[in-house]
Amino acid sequence: MEQMTELTKKVLEFLEPDTSKWEYWTTSQPLNSISESACMERFKKRIAQAVSNCEKVIVAGDYDCDGISATTIMVSGLRQLGLECGFYIPDRIKEGYGLSEATVTLAHKKGYSLIITVDNGIKSTQALALAKELGMDVIVTDHHTMDEEVNCDIVVHPTLMESCFETLCGAGVAYECMRVLGVDNDYLLQLAGLASISDMMIVKGQTRALIQNALRLMNQTHEKHIFSLATDREVNETSIGFQVVPKLNAIGRLSNLANVNNVVRYFLAQDDESIFTLGQQITQINTIRKQLSDQMQKTALMKCKGNEDIFMIEDASFHEGIIGLVAGSICASFNKPCIVLAKNEQGYKASMRSPEGFNCMDFLGEYPHFVTFGGHGNAAGFSLNLNEYDLFEKFIHTRIKEYTYSVKKKNTLVIDDEELSLKTIQSLDILRPFGPGFVFPSFEIVQPKIKSLYDFQNHKHRKYTLDSGLQCMRFNQSEAEYKKSVNAIYSFIGTVQINQYQGRKQVNFVIDEIVYA
Ligand SMILES: [Mn+2]
Question: Boundaries of each RecJ OB domain copy (predicted)?
């Protein structure tokens, strides 16, 4: 800990006032010992029984990065035991989230006797009842909130395990299952780490250990499945989150164009040719996803006046797999709640995102006519019947008038721009991974000494150069901001980035917000 830079100390003080925990945040954690919980014991016994009876097992997954990783981990591990193991991830648009009765029926017809859900299942009440009726056993492994008893044979859940496991994502739970069975390996660990990053789990306990060990292994071995999707040759949680995760999530989103089960095949594939071909297909679908979300975002922005207290945006061109991304970006750029809807034959699918301090569930909870409705604090998803649009819109505009919330002021760490060098920024790496529960702070440069500025791309973006030489980038500045006097600037709030420029590494400060005096 002696080699900690002043900047590292400052960041740590900001994130963790309790210095007795600094040792923890500055060291790589080994994995916690294998769970000895009762649910894991039961899991192990049931799998042993399946092996000795030569049962057919089906793993039922979910279509996001966590669900895909969890499915791969479970299938790969069980096959190592010699089990005949199939898998199925539903079509996001046609079938929706969670284990369905149709899947149970089909699995039964095909002679499967044991269903194992991963990253879902806890809420699949009807499908679980049907499985029981058909005499099939079900093991639910999931990390979503469990608020009532689950009607199945065995539940494996973080809350039923030792406390270090409470932050696990779906793939993390699946990986612990593999450890219990003794069929875990470095590859499956990397998938569990990847999924922990993608599912935005709190970076404490086993989740922190999984991410650290996964990233170390990725950079040591350049594992093909991961690096076929990454652009950098050295990765951390941020680059995995920006380069790899969106590609994997794109497949589930565009289920009208691609089958997410092929991503599990990609991760299970061992020959270079399959990895290469499938990897390219995944990247291609993501390119389409990007084009679609750019288009939708443009359309959505045109429909925002800017003075609304809440945005409700619908357009015939909207794709229901992308609405969450668009709602998120509109919410972030205006710092106001946003609902984006897509219409299909049955009705409307909608996604809501809200700023910190605004609770979507509280806000929407009073509406009595949702067909489906779920979510948490700052994100919700729901569906409406076709004829309910106007009624719902009325509700939203009435509700926003009575709903009070205070937008949390960004808690910033004030720093001197002279403190930001390549060396000091890199020294922060010992604190990685950052993530929920240990968020990389927003830096604030108060009264920046601006030496020069440079507008580019038709004054869409601006580069401020400070006396210290630090370059501060302001992307997508508004017209109002463009016209304001530089002398009125009180501070820059933003983050730091290390960029490669003509082979040289350079520190950039990326401005998220300009505060005026
Ligand atoms: Mn998950």
Answer: 415-512
Distance 231 CA to ligand 1 centre (A): 25
CA of 493 to the centre of ligand 1 (A): 32
Q: Which residue, 143, 151, 177, is CA-closest to 50? A: 177
Gap from CA of 126 to ligand 1 centroid (Å): 21
CATH topology of domain 38-221: inorganic pyrophosphatase (n-terminal core) (3.90.1640)
CATH number attached to the domain at 412-516 = 2.40.50.460
Residue 285 CA to ligand 1 centre (angstroms): 22
Cβ partners under 8 Å of residue 458, min gap 6: none
CA of 70 to the centre of ligand 1 (A): 9
Q: Tell me the residue type at 174.
A: A
User: What confidence tens digit (pLDDT) does each residue in 201-237 have?
Assistant: 999 999 999 999 999 999 999 999 999 999 999 999 9
Fold of 303-402: Diaminopimelate Epimerase; Chain A, domain 1 (3.10.310)
pTM above 0.90, yes or no: yes
State phi, psi for 267 to the nearest 5 degrees.
-70, -25
Ligand 1 mean position to 314 CA, how many Å?
Answer: 28
